[in-house]
Amino acid sequence: MCRHGPTAFSFASVDLLHGVPGIFAYDNCPSCRSFFQNPIAVDDDLPRYYPEDYFTHDDLGALKPGGSSGPLQALVRRLVLESRSRPRDHSLDLRERCGRLLHAIGFVRRRALFGLVDELGPPVGADRCLELGPGTGDDMWRLAQLGWKVTGIDLDARAAEVAAARSGCEVVVGSILDHRPREPYGLIYGSHSIEHVPRIRETVTHLHSLLGAGGQLVLIVPNPWSLSTRFYGPLSVVWDPPRHLTLPSVRALRALLGETGFNRVRVRTSSRRAGHYCAIARARRLGTSGVAAWNTRATGAPRVVQATETLLVHLGVEVGEEIIVSATAG
Which residues are within 8 A (CB) of 330 and not within 5 positions of it... i.e. 6 or more apart? Predict the structure, then answer.
């Protein structure tokens, strides 16, 4: 990924989630500490990596106001978002004061909001947003609820169909490298998508060209140096062979964004998924395979790992399960 020096074999694995035939090897770059599939897949290989039972192919139905949350969470979320969108003054009514109070309580805020998407907030200036690989469309729907004019893009026609039906937003079928919009975007967002593309440097360079001046790039990427990869090795969900082609390190992402023209680069890790990821890896170690392992709930030891990881992340150690990237186009 950094194009410096030789790489070394790290491990090989079968597809632990869907059983796609083959053995998939990963190399590590000692210079930038990133991992990549070797030999890396080409575009023609990709369709067979996403079988019919892949989660983006499930028809989950259209999202409704409140999303997948219950009525109480939907109410709290609405109060919190309303309080964030209003200027601070001393003439707030009771509803707005409740929203401010709820937003001030970290635990309530994390439970009420949908994570990073809500924290992005409504558009300021350019309001066009592109989501890379929108999955089941949940984040597209949430971005639209915040006021963004959202378009998704996905190579997989079935996944695009599901995301469009679920979110009510347009989803283009095709490669991001071939995407040429008429107008620049104010936001490009990708959650667990950039690791699925064969040419990550070329892709990030192209994303910069799609943003207008001051436009924001926000990416969420699995962290190959997370606590779960250190404890469970190839059993960690982070690797997901053969679908995850390149797993960049925190160091590599910082360098790549600077080299491709971005500024105000911020890269950090998050322990948000630690409990679930460790529960899956532990289930695999105990002999559970496929989707059954994925559906394992986090109890006992995985919760201890999650608490440990959360503490380490707060102390500045970059071992969270996800890398969160934000950067601005010059």
Answer: 213, 261, 262, 263
Q: How confident is the model at residue 84 (pLDDT cuts 50, 70, 90)?
A: low
In order of their start, the domains of the chain are 8-58+117-329 (3.40.50.150)
Distance between first and last Cα of the chain: 23
CB atoms within 10 A of CB 92: 15
Tell me the Ramachandran region of residue 274: left when phi exceeds 0, alpha when psi lies from -120 to 50, beta otherwise.
alpha
Alpha-carbon distance values, 120 to 66, 127, 266, 301, 326 (Å): 18, 12, 14, 33, 10
Residue 228 in contact with residue 238, Cβ under 8 Å?
Answer: yes
Collapsing DSSP to helix, strand or coil, 329 comes out as strand
**pTM for the whole structure:** 0.86
pLDDT tens digit sequence for 161-206 = 999 999 999 999 999 999 999 999 999 999 999 999 999 999 999 9
Asked if 236 contacts 305 with a C-beta cutoff of 8 angstroms, the reply is no
